Amino acid sequence: MLIETVDxxxxxxxxxxxxxxxxxxxxxxxxxxxxxxxxxxxxxxALIGERTRFGxxxxxxxxxxLGRPAVMTDDQIEMTKKLKSAGGHSMxxxxxxxxxxxxxxxxxxxxx
Length: 112
Known about the structure:
This protein has helices at about 1-10, 30-60, 75-85, 90-100, 100-110; strands at about 15-20, 25. By secondary structure, the protein is mostly helical. The chain has 2 domains: about 1-60, no CATH class; about 75-110. The longest helix has about 35 residues, at about 30-60. It has 5 helices and 2 strands.
């Protein structure tokens, strides 16, 4: 993205000068350094993506659950089912008793 922007500016005879890295794209050497840095940044970004995908696949293959931890335990879900089937308890009352929201109850019942 940055390389494309600098290239578009160059087509309009506008140079890019980085004061902190001492890069000046109005010179041949400055353009070379800028593009080398850009290529290295793109390479590093690709490596990070590959490592992340590998790590996620590895964790998944080991059975590690990814994402946010579950709010309700299996026992709480079973208790919710029993209270719901017995009648006499609203979903709000069950949610209040368990300390969760109604939407969490519905989501847990739907997922189960």
